[in-house]
Amino acid sequence: MSIFRNHSQLKPRFSIFRSSLHARVAFGVALPVFISLMGLSVVHYWQDLSVLREQASSYAAQLGDVLNNSISHAMVIKDSEHLMTALSDVNRLDIVQQVQIVGVSGKLLAASGTQSDANSVNQLNIGCWECHQYPAGNRPRSVELQEPLDTLRISTTISNHSECSTCHQETSDHLGVLLIDISLEDVKAHTNQTLIRNLAISISSTLLITMGIYWLMHRIVVKRIEDLRIPIATYAAGNHTARILEREGIDDEISQLGDTFNQMADEIDRNAREIEVRTEVRQKAIIDERERIARELHDGLAQVLGYVGTKVMAIRLNLQKENIQEADRQLSQLEDAARSVSLDVREGILGLKMASQVDTNLVAGLDEYIRQFNNLSNVHAQFNKPPDLLVNLLPEEVLHLLRIVQEALTNARKHANASKISVSLDQEQNVIKLAIMDDGRGFDLMNVLELKNGHFGLTTMQERAEEIGADLEFRSKPSGGTRVLVEFDLLRERS
Questions:
Q1: What is the pLDDT of residues 397-426, one digit of tens each?
Q2: What pLDDT does residue 10 have?
Q3: Where are the domains of the chain?
Q4: Most C-beta atoms within 10 A of its C-beta, which of 87, 284, 322, 368?
Q5: Which fold has domain 276-489?
Q6: Which fold has domain 22-164+172-190?
Q7: CA–CA gap between residue 24 and residue 33 (Å, rounded)
Protein backbone atom coordinates (compact mmCIF):
# COMPACT_ATOMS: atom_id res chain seq x y z
CA MET A 1 0.00 0.00 0.00
CA SER A 2 2.85 2.38 0.81
CA ILE A 3 4.37 1.74 -2.62
CA PHE A 4 1.17 2.83 -4.36
CA ARG A 5 0.92 5.84 -2.07
CA ASN A 6 4.45 6.92 -2.91
CA HIS A 7 3.78 6.41 -6.58
CA SER A 8 0.66 8.58 -6.41
CA GLN A 9 2.65 11.26 -4.58
CA LEU A 10 5.21 11.31 -7.38
CA LYS A 11 2.62 11.85 -10.10
CA PRO A 12 2.09 15.60 -9.49
CA ARG A 13 5.85 16.17 -9.73
CA PHE A 14 5.94 14.83 -13.28
CA SER A 15 2.59 16.21 -14.39
CA ILE A 16 4.39 19.10 -16.07
CA PHE A 17 5.98 16.66 -18.53
CA ARG A 18 2.53 15.40 -19.54
CA SER A 19 0.87 18.82 -19.74
CA SER A 20 3.65 21.07 -21.08
CA LEU A 21 4.99 20.66 -24.60
CA HIS A 22 7.83 23.05 -23.73
CA ALA A 23 9.02 20.71 -20.96
CA ARG A 24 8.69 17.64 -23.17
CA VAL A 25 10.73 19.27 -25.91
CA ALA A 26 13.34 20.50 -23.43
CA PHE A 27 13.73 17.19 -21.59
CA GLY A 28 12.81 14.85 -24.41
CA VAL A 29 14.80 16.44 -27.23
CA ALA A 30 17.19 19.16 -26.08
CA LEU A 31 18.50 17.34 -22.96
CA PRO A 32 19.29 14.04 -24.76
CA VAL A 33 21.04 16.01 -27.51
CA PHE A 34 23.03 17.92 -24.89
CA ILE A 35 24.01 14.73 -23.04
CA SER A 36 24.97 13.00 -26.30
CA LEU A 37 27.14 15.89 -27.48
CA MET A 38 28.71 16.23 -24.04
CA GLY A 39 29.48 12.51 -24.03
CA LEU A 40 31.06 12.78 -27.46
CA SER A 41 33.13 15.74 -26.27
CA VAL A 42 34.42 13.85 -23.22
CA VAL A 43 35.21 10.75 -25.30
CA HIS A 44 36.99 12.96 -27.81
CA TYR A 45 38.94 14.54 -24.92
CA TRP A 46 40.18 11.17 -23.62
CA GLN A 47 41.00 10.00 -27.12
CA ASP A 48 43.07 13.13 -27.73
CA LEU A 49 44.80 12.65 -24.39
CA SER A 50 45.67 9.06 -25.25
CA VAL A 51 46.92 10.07 -28.72
CA LEU A 52 49.11 12.81 -27.25
CA ARG A 53 50.60 10.35 -24.73
CA GLU A 54 51.38 7.94 -27.54
CA GLN A 55 52.89 10.76 -29.56
CA ALA A 56 55.05 11.78 -26.57
CA SER A 57 56.24 8.18 -26.17
CA SER A 58 56.98 7.93 -29.89
CA TYR A 59 58.83 11.23 -29.81
CA ALA A 60 60.95 10.05 -26.87
CA ALA A 61 61.72 6.75 -28.62
CA GLN A 62 62.84 8.63 -31.74
CA LEU A 63 64.97 10.86 -29.55
CA GLY A 64 66.53 7.74 -28.05
CA ASP A 65 67.33 6.37 -31.51
CA VAL A 66 68.98 9.63 -32.55
CA LEU A 67 70.99 9.76 -29.33
CA ASN A 68 71.94 6.11 -29.74
CA ASN A 69 73.40 6.88 -33.19
CA SER A 70 75.30 9.81 -31.73
CA ILE A 71 76.68 7.58 -28.94
CA SER A 72 77.69 4.91 -31.46
CA HIS A 73 79.54 7.55 -33.47
CA ALA A 74 81.30 8.86 -30.34
CA MET A 75 82.28 5.31 -29.36
CA VAL A 76 83.68 4.59 -32.81
CA ILE A 77 85.87 7.69 -32.78
CA LYS A 78 86.59 7.12 -29.06
CA ASP A 79 85.61 10.65 -28.16
CA SER A 80 84.22 10.62 -24.60
CA GLU A 81 83.90 14.42 -24.58
CA HIS A 82 81.61 14.25 -27.61
CA LEU A 83 79.58 11.57 -25.84
CA MET A 84 79.03 13.67 -22.74
CA THR A 85 78.20 16.72 -24.86
CA ALA A 86 75.49 14.73 -26.68
CA LEU A 87 74.06 13.57 -23.35
CA SER A 88 74.10 17.13 -21.99
CA ASP A 89 72.41 18.53 -25.11
CA VAL A 90 69.59 16.03 -24.76
CA ASN A 91 69.27 16.67 -21.04
CA ARG A 92 68.82 20.42 -21.66
CA LEU A 93 65.43 19.69 -23.25
CA ASP A 94 62.61 20.86 -20.95
CA ILE A 95 60.87 17.51 -20.78
CA VAL A 96 64.06 15.42 -20.22
CA GLN A 97 64.95 14.75 -16.59
CA GLN A 98 68.08 12.64 -17.06
CA VAL A 99 69.94 10.45 -19.55
CA GLN A 100 71.81 7.32 -18.47
CA ILE A 101 73.95 4.66 -20.16
CA VAL A 102 73.92 1.31 -18.37
CA GLY A 103 76.27 -1.50 -19.37
CA VAL A 104 75.31 -5.14 -19.82
CA SER A 105 76.60 -5.93 -16.35
CA GLY A 106 74.36 -3.25 -14.83
CA LYS A 107 77.16 -0.77 -14.28
CA LEU A 108 76.22 2.88 -14.77
CA LEU A 109 78.64 4.01 -17.50
CA ALA A 110 77.46 7.60 -18.01
CA ALA A 111 74.73 9.89 -16.76
CA SER A 112 73.51 13.42 -17.33
CA GLY A 113 70.94 15.31 -15.27
CA THR A 114 69.73 14.00 -11.90
CA GLN A 115 72.73 12.01 -10.59
CA SER A 116 72.44 8.81 -8.65
CA ASP A 117 74.87 7.79 -5.91
CA ALA A 118 74.87 4.18 -7.09
CA ASN A 119 77.50 3.06 -9.63
CA SER A 120 75.42 0.07 -10.67
CA VAL A 121 71.75 -0.76 -11.00
CA ASN A 122 69.75 -3.85 -10.07
CA GLN A 123 66.98 -5.27 -12.23
CA LEU A 124 64.76 -5.58 -9.18
CA ASN A 125 65.07 -1.91 -8.28
CA ILE A 126 62.28 0.55 -8.96
CA GLY A 127 62.89 1.98 -12.40
CA CYS A 128 64.29 -1.30 -13.73
CA TRP A 129 61.67 -3.79 -12.58
CA GLU A 130 58.93 -2.11 -14.68
CA CYS A 131 60.66 -3.33 -17.88
CA HIS A 132 62.44 -6.46 -16.63
CA GLN A 133 59.20 -7.99 -15.37
CA TYR A 134 58.49 -8.86 -19.02
CA PRO A 135 60.40 -11.52 -20.99
CA ALA A 136 63.43 -10.24 -22.91
CA GLY A 137 61.73 -10.45 -26.28
CA ASN A 138 58.52 -8.64 -25.17
CA ARG A 139 59.88 -5.75 -23.13
CA PRO A 140 58.30 -2.38 -24.00
CA ARG A 141 60.49 0.52 -25.03
CA SER A 142 58.64 2.93 -22.75
CA VAL A 143 57.07 2.53 -19.29
CA GLU A 144 55.74 4.87 -16.63
CA LEU A 145 57.84 4.66 -13.49
CA GLN A 146 56.21 4.09 -10.14
CA GLU A 147 58.78 6.41 -8.59
CA PRO A 148 59.19 9.23 -9.29
CA LEU A 149 55.64 9.70 -10.42
CA ASP A 150 54.71 11.19 -13.81
CA THR A 151 58.01 9.95 -15.30
CA LEU A 152 58.24 8.11 -18.58
CA ARG A 153 61.40 6.00 -19.12
CA ILE A 154 62.49 5.29 -22.68
CA SER A 155 64.97 2.43 -23.10
CA THR A 156 67.04 2.05 -26.28
CA THR A 157 69.35 -0.95 -26.68
CA ILE A 158 72.96 -0.14 -27.64
CA SER A 159 73.83 -2.80 -30.22
CA ASN A 160 77.31 -4.38 -30.54
CA HIS A 161 78.18 -3.50 -34.14
CA SER A 162 81.21 -4.83 -36.02
CA GLU A 163 83.02 -1.50 -35.72
CA CYS A 164 82.82 -1.89 -31.93
CA SER A 165 84.92 -5.09 -31.95
CA THR A 166 88.15 -3.17 -31.43
CA CYS A 167 87.11 -2.45 -27.88
CA HIS A 168 84.40 -4.98 -27.11
CA GLN A 169 84.08 -8.72 -27.50
CA GLU A 170 81.86 -10.05 -30.28
CA THR A 171 80.22 -12.66 -28.01
CA SER A 172 77.50 -10.25 -26.86
CA ASP A 173 74.82 -8.72 -29.15
CA HIS A 174 74.37 -5.72 -26.87
CA LEU A 175 76.73 -3.38 -25.15
CA GLY A 176 74.19 -1.80 -22.82
CA VAL A 177 71.05 0.30 -22.77
CA LEU A 178 70.37 4.00 -23.13
CA LEU A 179 67.77 5.28 -20.62
CA ILE A 180 66.00 8.61 -21.08
CA ASP A 181 63.62 9.81 -18.35
CA ILE A 182 60.96 12.24 -19.55
CA SER A 183 58.73 14.27 -17.23
CA LEU A 184 55.09 13.55 -18.03
CA GLU A 185 54.01 16.38 -15.77
CA ASP A 186 55.13 18.98 -18.30
CA VAL A 187 53.61 16.97 -21.14
CA LYS A 188 50.35 16.58 -19.22
CA ALA A 189 50.27 20.29 -18.33
CA HIS A 190 50.70 21.31 -21.97
CA THR A 191 48.32 18.59 -23.14
CA ASN A 192 45.67 19.35 -20.52
CA GLN A 193 45.82 23.04 -21.34
CA THR A 194 45.16 22.31 -25.01
CA LEU A 195 42.56 19.63 -24.34
CA ILE A 196 40.73 21.70 -21.72
CA ARG A 197 40.57 24.56 -24.20
CA ASN A 198 39.19 22.18 -26.82
CA LEU A 199 36.76 20.72 -24.27
CA ALA A 200 35.55 24.21 -23.35
CA ILE A 201 35.00 24.93 -27.03
CA SER A 202 33.14 21.63 -27.39
CA ILE A 203 30.94 22.36 -24.35
CA SER A 204 30.18 25.86 -25.64
CA SER A 205 29.35 24.46 -29.07
CA THR A 206 27.19 21.79 -27.45
CA LEU A 207 25.27 24.40 -25.47
CA LEU A 208 24.80 26.56 -28.55
CA ILE A 209 23.66 23.57 -30.63
CA THR A 210 21.28 22.43 -27.88
CA MET A 211 19.84 25.91 -27.48
CA GLY A 212 19.54 26.20 -31.26
CA ILE A 213 17.68 22.88 -31.48
CA TYR A 214 15.36 23.91 -28.65
CA TRP A 215 14.75 27.30 -30.29
CA LEU A 216 14.03 25.66 -33.65
CA MET A 217 11.65 23.14 -32.04
CA HIS A 218 9.96 25.98 -30.18
CA ARG A 219 9.74 28.13 -33.29
CA ILE A 220 8.72 25.45 -35.79
CA VAL A 221 6.50 23.24 -33.60
CA VAL A 222 5.73 24.40 -30.04
CA LYS A 223 4.84 28.04 -30.72
CA ARG A 224 2.75 27.18 -33.76
CA ILE A 225 0.85 24.51 -31.83
CA GLU A 226 0.27 27.10 -29.10
CA ASP A 227 -1.07 29.42 -31.81
CA LEU A 228 -3.48 26.63 -32.74
CA ARG A 229 -4.51 25.86 -29.16
CA ILE A 230 -5.57 29.38 -28.16
CA PRO A 231 -8.10 29.98 -31.01
CA ILE A 232 -9.45 26.44 -30.66
CA ALA A 233 -9.92 26.90 -26.89
CA THR A 234 -11.55 30.30 -27.53
CA TYR A 235 -13.86 28.71 -30.10
CA ALA A 236 -14.72 25.89 -27.69
CA ALA A 237 -15.53 28.49 -24.99
CA GLY A 238 -18.27 29.90 -27.22
CA ASN A 239 -16.56 32.60 -29.27
CA HIS A 240 -17.34 31.23 -32.73
CA THR A 241 -15.60 34.14 -34.45
CA ALA A 242 -12.18 32.83 -33.35
CA ARG A 243 -9.95 31.76 -36.24
CA ILE A 244 -6.35 30.60 -36.62
CA LEU A 245 -4.12 33.15 -38.31
CA GLU A 246 -2.62 32.00 -41.59
CA ARG A 247 1.15 32.25 -42.06
CA GLU A 248 2.18 33.46 -45.49
CA GLY A 249 4.63 31.25 -47.35
CA ILE A 250 4.12 28.24 -45.05
CA ASP A 251 2.05 25.28 -46.18
CA ASP A 252 3.17 22.40 -43.99
CA GLU A 253 1.07 19.95 -41.97
CA ILE A 254 0.52 22.39 -39.06
CA SER A 255 -0.64 25.13 -41.45
CA GLN A 256 -2.94 22.63 -43.17
CA LEU A 257 -4.33 21.69 -39.74
CA GLY A 258 -5.07 25.36 -39.06
CA ASP A 259 -6.70 25.76 -42.48
CA THR A 260 -8.80 22.67 -41.83
CA PHE A 261 -10.00 24.10 -38.51
CA ASN A 262 -10.87 27.43 -40.14
CA GLN A 263 -12.78 25.65 -42.91
CA MET A 264 -14.59 23.53 -40.32
CA ALA A 265 -15.49 26.63 -38.28
CA ASP A 266 -16.69 28.46 -41.41
CA GLU A 267 -18.77 25.43 -42.39
CA ILE A 268 -20.28 25.21 -38.91
CA ASP A 269 -21.14 28.92 -38.99
CA ARG A 270 -22.64 28.58 -42.45
CA ASN A 271 -24.72 25.59 -41.35
CA ALA A 272 -25.81 27.47 -38.23
CA ARG A 273 -26.92 30.43 -40.34
CA GLU A 274 -28.73 28.10 -42.72
CA ILE A 275 -30.48 26.40 -39.81
CA GLU A 276 -31.43 29.79 -38.41
CA VAL A 277 -32.77 30.92 -41.78
CA ARG A 278 -34.61 27.63 -42.26
CA THR A 279 -36.13 27.98 -38.81
CA GLU A 280 -37.29 31.49 -39.66
CA VAL A 281 -38.65 30.27 -43.00
CA ARG A 282 -40.47 27.40 -41.33
CA GLN A 283 -41.91 29.71 -38.69
CA LYS A 284 -43.08 32.06 -41.39
CA ALA A 285 -44.46 29.11 -43.37
CA ILE A 286 -46.40 28.02 -40.29
CA ILE A 287 -47.79 31.53 -39.86
CA ASP A 288 -48.61 31.74 -43.56
CA GLU A 289 -50.29 28.35 -43.41
CA ARG A 290 -52.38 29.44 -40.44
CA GLU A 291 -53.37 32.61 -42.25
CA ARG A 292 -54.23 30.59 -45.36
CA ILE A 293 -56.37 28.17 -43.36
CA ALA A 294 -58.07 31.09 -41.60
CA ARG A 295 -58.71 32.76 -44.95
CA GLU A 296 -60.07 29.56 -46.44
CA LEU A 297 -62.29 29.01 -43.43
CA HIS A 298 -63.55 32.55 -43.79
CA ASP A 299 -63.98 32.34 -47.55
CA GLY A 300 -65.25 28.77 -47.51
CA LEU A 301 -66.82 27.37 -44.36
CA ALA A 302 -67.97 30.67 -42.84
CA GLN A 303 -69.59 31.86 -46.04
CA VAL A 304 -71.10 28.45 -46.74
CA LEU A 305 -72.50 28.23 -43.24
CA GLY A 306 -74.07 31.65 -43.69
CA TYR A 307 -75.32 30.58 -47.12
CA VAL A 308 -76.73 27.37 -45.61
CA GLY A 309 -78.57 29.34 -42.90
CA THR A 310 -80.13 31.63 -45.50
CA LYS A 311 -81.12 28.72 -47.75
CA VAL A 312 -82.65 26.78 -44.85
CA MET A 313 -84.81 29.73 -43.94
CA ALA A 314 -85.89 30.10 -47.59
CA ILE A 315 -86.66 26.39 -47.87
CA ARG A 316 -88.75 26.48 -44.67
CA LEU A 317 -90.79 29.41 -45.99
CA ASN A 318 -91.32 27.64 -49.32
CA LEU A 319 -92.43 24.49 -47.51
CA GLN A 320 -94.85 26.51 -45.40
CA LYS A 321 -96.28 27.96 -48.63
CA GLU A 322 -96.24 24.44 -50.11
CA ASN A 323 -93.97 25.69 -52.91
CA ILE A 324 -92.31 22.30 -53.33
CA GLN A 325 -90.62 23.04 -56.64
CA GLU A 326 -88.82 26.14 -55.33
CA ALA A 327 -87.82 24.34 -52.14
CA ASP A 328 -86.36 21.50 -54.18
CA ARG A 329 -84.37 23.95 -56.32
CA GLN A 330 -82.91 25.60 -53.24
CA LEU A 331 -82.09 22.21 -51.71
CA SER A 332 -80.19 21.38 -54.91
CA GLN A 333 -78.20 24.63 -54.56
CA LEU A 334 -77.51 23.78 -50.92
CA GLU A 335 -76.27 20.35 -52.00
CA ASP A 336 -73.85 21.91 -54.55
CA ALA A 337 -72.53 24.29 -51.91
CA ALA A 338 -71.97 21.45 -49.45
CA ARG A 339 -70.18 19.44 -52.14
CA SER A 340 -67.97 22.43 -52.99
CA VAL A 341 -67.03 23.16 -49.39
CA SER A 342 -66.38 19.45 -48.83
CA LEU A 343 -63.94 19.52 -51.74
CA ASP A 344 -62.27 22.64 -50.32
CA VAL A 345 -61.84 20.97 -46.93
CA ARG A 346 -60.37 17.84 -48.51
CA GLU A 347 -57.97 19.97 -50.55
CA GLY A 348 -56.98 21.79 -47.37
CA ILE A 349 -56.30 18.46 -45.64
CA LEU A 350 -54.24 17.37 -48.66
CA GLY A 351 -52.22 20.57 -48.43
CA LEU A 352 -51.52 20.01 -44.74
CA LYS A 353 -50.42 16.41 -45.36
CA MET A 354 -48.20 17.59 -48.20
CA ALA A 355 -46.51 20.18 -45.94
CA SER A 356 -45.65 17.52 -43.33
CA GLN A 357 -44.29 15.03 -45.91
CA VAL A 358 -42.31 17.36 -48.18
CA ASP A 359 -38.65 16.52 -48.90
CA THR A 360 -35.99 17.74 -51.35
CA ASN A 361 -37.37 16.02 -54.47
CA LEU A 362 -39.53 18.56 -56.31
CA VAL A 363 -40.51 16.16 -59.12
CA ALA A 364 -41.78 13.48 -56.73
CA GLY A 365 -43.63 16.09 -54.64
CA LEU A 366 -45.43 17.54 -57.66
CA ASP A 367 -46.28 14.12 -59.05
CA GLU A 368 -47.83 12.98 -55.76
CA TYR A 369 -49.80 16.20 -55.19
CA ILE A 370 -51.24 16.28 -58.71
CA ARG A 371 -52.24 12.60 -58.40
CA GLN A 372 -54.06 13.33 -55.12
CA PHE A 373 -55.68 16.45 -56.64
CA ASN A 374 -57.04 14.43 -59.55
CA ASN A 375 -58.52 11.90 -57.12
CA LEU A 376 -60.36 14.65 -55.23
CA SER A 377 -61.38 17.00 -58.04
CA ASN A 378 -63.63 16.64 -61.06
CA VAL A 379 -61.10 18.71 -63.02
CA HIS A 380 -58.15 16.72 -64.38
CA ALA A 381 -54.63 18.17 -64.12
CA GLN A 382 -51.87 16.77 -66.37
CA PHE A 383 -48.23 16.75 -65.23
CA ASN A 384 -45.66 17.19 -68.03
CA LYS A 385 -41.91 16.73 -67.45
CA PRO A 386 -38.87 15.21 -69.17
CA PRO A 387 -38.55 11.50 -68.32
CA ASP A 388 -35.10 11.79 -66.71
CA LEU A 389 -35.65 15.09 -64.90
CA LEU A 390 -34.44 15.19 -61.29
CA VAL A 391 -34.63 18.41 -59.26
CA ASN A 392 -33.37 18.47 -55.66
CA LEU A 393 -33.91 21.66 -53.66
CA LEU A 394 -34.13 22.67 -50.03
CA PRO A 395 -37.32 21.40 -48.35
CA GLU A 396 -38.50 24.98 -47.80
CA GLU A 397 -38.05 25.78 -51.50
CA VAL A 398 -39.96 22.64 -52.52
CA LEU A 399 -42.78 23.55 -50.10
CA HIS A 400 -43.17 27.08 -51.47
CA LEU A 401 -43.24 25.84 -55.08
CA LEU A 402 -45.84 23.20 -54.16
CA ARG A 403 -47.93 25.88 -52.44
CA ILE A 404 -47.83 28.02 -55.60
CA VAL A 405 -49.02 25.03 -57.64
CA GLN A 406 -51.72 24.26 -55.05
CA GLU A 407 -52.99 27.86 -55.12
CA ALA A 408 -53.01 27.92 -58.93
CA LEU A 409 -54.89 24.59 -59.16
CA THR A 410 -57.42 25.67 -56.53
CA ASN A 411 -58.05 28.95 -58.35
CA ALA A 412 -58.47 27.14 -61.66
CA ARG A 413 -60.97 24.67 -60.20
CA LYS A 414 -62.82 26.94 -57.85
CA HIS A 415 -62.89 30.34 -59.53
CA ALA A 416 -61.91 29.96 -63.19
CA ASN A 417 -64.32 27.07 -63.86
CA ALA A 418 -61.57 25.34 -65.89
CA SER A 419 -62.11 21.99 -67.54
CA LYS A 420 -58.46 21.21 -68.23
CA ILE A 421 -55.27 22.07 -66.33
CA SER A 422 -51.65 21.46 -67.35
CA VAL A 423 -48.60 21.57 -65.03
CA SER A 424 -45.19 21.59 -66.80
CA LEU A 425 -41.75 21.30 -65.17
CA ASP A 426 -38.44 21.63 -67.01
CA GLN A 427 -34.83 22.68 -66.45
CA GLU A 428 -32.72 24.79 -68.82
CA GLN A 429 -29.11 24.84 -67.66
CA ASN A 430 -29.37 26.15 -64.07
CA VAL A 431 -32.93 27.54 -64.28
CA ILE A 432 -35.98 25.58 -63.10
CA LYS A 433 -39.10 26.49 -65.10
CA LEU A 434 -42.57 25.70 -63.72
CA ALA A 435 -45.78 26.55 -65.65
CA ILE A 436 -49.45 26.07 -64.61
CA MET A 437 -51.98 26.63 -67.41
CA ASP A 438 -55.78 26.30 -67.48
CA ASP A 439 -58.56 26.92 -70.00
CA GLY A 440 -60.80 28.76 -67.53
CA ARG A 441 -62.57 32.06 -67.90
CA GLY A 442 -59.50 34.12 -67.05
CA PHE A 443 -59.52 37.66 -65.67
CA ASP A 444 -58.36 41.18 -66.34
CA LEU A 445 -54.85 41.12 -64.91
CA MET A 446 -54.44 44.89 -64.60
CA ASN A 447 -57.67 45.33 -62.66
CA VAL A 448 -56.86 42.46 -60.31
CA LEU A 449 -53.34 43.69 -59.56
CA GLU A 450 -54.67 47.17 -58.76
CA LEU A 451 -56.90 45.75 -56.01
CA LYS A 452 -55.54 46.45 -52.55
CA ASN A 453 -55.86 42.91 -51.25
CA GLY A 454 -55.27 41.08 -54.54
CA HIS A 455 -57.56 38.37 -55.87
CA PHE A 456 -57.61 34.60 -56.28
CA GLY A 457 -54.61 34.16 -54.03
CA LEU A 458 -52.26 36.02 -56.38
CA THR A 459 -50.76 38.00 -53.52
CA THR A 460 -49.98 34.83 -51.57
CA MET A 461 -48.36 33.22 -54.61
CA GLN A 462 -46.22 36.33 -55.18
CA GLU A 463 -45.04 36.33 -51.54
CA ARG A 464 -44.10 32.67 -51.69
CA ALA A 465 -42.03 33.25 -54.86
CA GLU A 466 -40.21 36.16 -53.22
CA GLU A 467 -39.39 34.01 -50.15
CA ILE A 468 -37.23 31.67 -52.26
CA GLY A 469 -35.96 34.29 -54.72
CA ALA A 470 -37.98 32.99 -57.68
CA ASP A 471 -39.51 35.07 -60.48
CA LEU A 472 -43.31 34.81 -60.81
CA GLU A 473 -45.35 35.97 -63.80
CA PHE A 474 -49.13 35.89 -64.47
CA ARG A 475 -50.63 35.85 -67.96
CA SER A 476 -54.42 35.98 -68.27
CA LYS A 477 -57.29 37.67 -70.07
CA PRO A 478 -61.04 37.29 -69.86
CA SER A 479 -62.21 34.06 -71.53
CA GLY A 480 -58.59 33.31 -72.46
CA GLY A 481 -57.47 31.11 -69.56
CA THR A 482 -54.66 31.74 -67.10
CA ARG A 483 -50.94 30.96 -67.21
CA VAL A 484 -48.70 31.09 -64.11
CA LEU A 485 -44.92 31.02 -64.83
CA VAL A 486 -42.25 30.43 -62.17
CA GLU A 487 -38.49 30.59 -62.84
CA PHE A 488 -36.02 29.59 -60.14
CA ASP A 489 -32.24 30.08 -60.68
CA LEU A 490 -30.24 27.39 -58.87
CA LEU A 491 -27.12 29.58 -58.84
CA ARG A 492 -28.89 32.50 -57.20
CA GLU A 493 -27.70 33.23 -53.68
CA ARG A 494 -30.17 31.70 -51.28
CA SER A 495 -31.05 33.68 -48.20
A1: 888 898 899 889 888 888 888 889 999 999
A2: 45
A3: 22-164+172-190, 276-489
A4: 87
A5: Heat Shock Protein 90 (3.30.565)
A6: Beta-Lactamase (3.30.450)
A7: 13
